Amino acid sequence: MPLIETTALEMRYDGGVTALADLTLAIEAGVVGLVGVNGAGKTTLIKLALGLLTPTGGGIRVLGLDPVADGDRVRAKVGYMPEHDCLPPDMIAAEFVTHMARMSGLPAAAARERASETLRHVGLYEERYRRIGGYSTGMKQRVKLAQALVHDPELLLLDEPTNGLDPAGRRAMLDLVHRIGTEFGVSVVICSHLLGEIERICTSLVAIDAGRLLRSASLSAMTEHNDLLVVEVDAGADRLADALTAAGLDVRRDNRVLTVRLGDDDGPAYDLIRDAVADLDLALHRLERQRHQVADLFRDLPTPAVTRV
Ligand SMILES: Nc1ncnc2c1ncn2[C@@H]1O[C@H](COP(=O)(O)OP(=O)(O)OP(=O)(O)O)[C@@H](O)[C@H]1O
């Protein structure tokens, strides 16, 4: 069952802005990147998935449920980390996250225990009794993540979780999201306008632009090797390219890096490269099968539909 499935989904706001138009997609379990420039319609889709907005056309199902008719049941199974600042500055983090756990229906003692545990998971255990107003942006983002996780959801919806963070903070937040997706077995939809930033932690990507689906692709194919070998030498790449071409291989050279197309039988290419490198007495830096690039999937999208970093 897809996590989120939409059929000809349309959302027109009062005032005439069409945020989503004829959007049909299926988001499968895993860590899914929902990418698109600011204004593409990502937040609108998240709000529709949570039952916070009612579509003006088409349909949406989340974990098999209809968020319009069954919003409470959907929200019990889904954690939501909003993009905007929404934390009470005068509250202590442990109290706030406990409160959110209580709101989700946990009894008082279980809520306190679960809040501590969740704050530990997001790296705020030592700081949990401090006022949120005194936290750094990175710590606030972690509190937002903790309140989304505290009721043990099946699906997490994260709206631009790296917003406002410096590069190290962004990496740390994405590593944390990746751990949640892989170690805790929670599916995650992570919205971002930066494809290049989130692609490394995602199992699939969905790109939208102006409320329409541009591309949806699993990244499993991206982790597969293609049929090219990459060979990098310190110096003498031109001589190596000549020698390999003379030996019958299909070789391209870009400075010190050669790409060699493997035939049906890989063996001879490896042997020929090894022998040529030895004969020419070159320093070999790299010899590996090339992988597909995620960017290849999105290369032909109209710019600036997806921002790359
Ligand atoms: N409450 C609203 N009333 C009217 N228009 C809205 C409302 N909320 C969003 N919009 C418009 O709908 C479109 C999609 O906005 P949305 O916030 O869903 O995009 P987004 O991809 O999440 O971008 P961002 O990351 O900047 O929030 C935009 O043109 C936006 O201005």
TrEMBL record:
Task: Tell me the keywords, alphabetical order.
Answer: ATP-binding, Nucleotide-binding, Transport
Q: Enumerate the GO terms in the molecular function aspect.
A: ATP binding; ATP hydrolysis activity
**Would I find Transmembrane helix among this entry's keywords?**
no
- Residue ranges of every copy of the ABC transporter domain listed in the record: 4-235
Q: Which SUPFAM superfamilies match?
A: P-loop containing nucleoside triphosphate hydrolases (SSF52540)
Which Pfam family, giving just one, matches this sequence? ABC_tran
Matches recorded under InterPro entries: AAA+_ATPase, ABC_transporter-like_ATP-bd, P-loop_NTPase
In which family does this protein belong, per the annotation?
A: Belongs to the ABC transporter superfamily.
Q: What is this protein called?
A: ABC transporter ATP-binding protein
